[in-house]
UniProtKB/TrEMBL annotation:
Keyword annotations: ATP synthesis, Cell membrane, CF(0), Hydrogen ion transport, Ion transport, Membrane, Transmembrane, Transmembrane helix, Transport
Stated family: Belongs to the ATPase A chain family.
InterPro entries to which the protein is assigned, alphabetical: ATP_syn_F0_a_bact/chloroplast, ATP_synth_F0_asu, F0_ATP_A_sf
Organism field: Amycolatopsis viridis
Gene3D superfamilies named in the record: ATP synthase, F0 complex, subunit A
Principal place of residence: membrane
Subcellular location(s) per record: Cell membrane; Membrane
Superkingdom of source: Bacteria
Protein name, per record: ATP synthase subunit a
Its biological purpose: Key component of the proton channel; it plays a direct role in the translocation of protons across the membrane.
Length: 260
C-alpha cells in the first residue's frame, strides 16, 4: 500500500506486516513472549481463585469458572470426542480454549493491545507440539501402528482404484495439513483483525492532526469504524478460540473413532 498525501509535506503510510514485528524489550524478549507467559499466569490464577472455596450457590467467579468448564466439557469435548472417550481430554480442551481466548482478547485490552496469535509461531507451536502429537498418539494407541495408518488413510467403501488417489490425499490431510490449517486459521483472523483496527485508528489520528479542509471531520468516521470493528473483533476472538478447541477435539475424536 502506498503513502497518501493530504497536505504539503504530510503523508500517511498505512500500517502493514512490519508493525507486527515488535522490538526486543530486554535480552531478546518481546512483548508477545511476555503476553504468552502472562496468559498462563492469568488463567491459572483465575481458576485457582475461583475454585478455592467452592459453594453450592456459586459466587460470580465460581459461576464463570463453572460455565467455562461446562462449555468446554459438554459443548466441545463431549460433542466432538464422544461420551465414551471424552473425559480424559477435558483438561486439554479447557486449556486450549482458555489459552487461545485470553491471548486473542489481549488484542483489544488497553496497554496490551496485541493479539499474541497474530504471530504465526505461537499457534503453530501449539498445534504442532500439543494437538498434533496428542491425537496421533491416541490413534496409534487405540488402533495400533498399521491399524491407525489404515484407519486414517483408507476410508472404507471406496472402489479399489480410487484408493490410489484417495489414500495419499488422506495422508496429506491427516499428517501434514491438519496442524497447519489449525494454526493458520487463528493466525490469519487475528492478524487481519488487528491490522484493520490499526488502519482505522492510525488513519483517524492522521486525519485529525495533519489533514485540512473536508478531510479533518473524516477522522471521526475513521474512529467510529475503529470502535465498531473492536466489537466485531471481540466476537471473532471468541469464535476463533472456540474453533481451535473444537477442531482439536474433533481430530482426537476422529483418531479414536472405530469408523473412519
Amino acid at each position: 500500500m502506498g503513502a497518501l498525501v493530504l497536505a504539503a509535506g504530510d503523508t500517511f503510510t498505512p500500517p502493514g506486516a512490519g508493525d507486527f514485528e515488535l522490538p526486543s524489550i530486554f535480552l531478546g524478549v518481546t512483548k508477545p513472549m511476555i503476553l504468552i507467559v502472562l496468559s498462563v499466569v492469568i488463567i491459572a490464577a483465575f481458576f485457582l481463585l475461583a475454585t478455592r472455596k467452592l459453594k453450592v450457590v456459586p459466587g460470580k467467579g465460581q459461576f464463570v469458572a463453572e460455565y467455562v468448564y461446562d462449555f468446554a466439557r459438554n459443548g466441545i469435548a463431549r460433542e466432538q470426542i464422544g461420551s465414551k472417550d471424552f473425559k480424559p481430554f477435558i483438561p486439554l480442551v479447557l486449556t486450549l480454549f482458555s489459552f487461545v481466548l485470553v491471548n486473542n482478547v489481549f488484542g483489544i485490552i488497553p496497554i496490551f493491545q496485541f493479539p499474541t496469535f497474530a504471530h504465526i509461531g505461537f499457534p503453530l507451536a501449539l498445534s504442532l507440539f500439543v494437538v498434533y502429537p496428542v491425537y496421533h498418539y491416541v490413534g496409534f494407541k487405540r488402533h495400533g501402528f498399521v491399524g491407525y495408518l489404515k484407519h486414517a488413510t483408507v476410508p472404507p467403501g471406496a472402489p479399489a482404484l480410487i484408493y490410489l488417489l484417495l489414500t495419499p490425499i488422506e495422508f496429506l490431510q491427516k499428517f501434514v495439513l491438519n496442524p497447519l490449517t489449525l494454526a493458520v486459521r487463528v493466525f490469519a483472523a487475528m492478524f487481519a483483525g488487528h491490522l484493520i483496527l490499526l488502519v482505522f485508528t492510525v488513519a483517524g489520528e492522521f486525519l485529525l492532526l495533519h489533514a485540512g479542509g473536508v478531510f479533518k471531520p473524516i477522522s471521526v468516521v475513521s474512529w467510529a469504524f475503529a470502535i465498531l470493528m473492536t466489537f466485531v473483533e471481540a466476537l471473532i476472538q471468541v469464535i476463533q478460540a472456540y474453533v481451535f478447541a473444537v477442531l482439536s477435539a474433533n481430530y482426537i475424536g476422529a483418531a479414536l473413532a472405530e469408523d473412519h
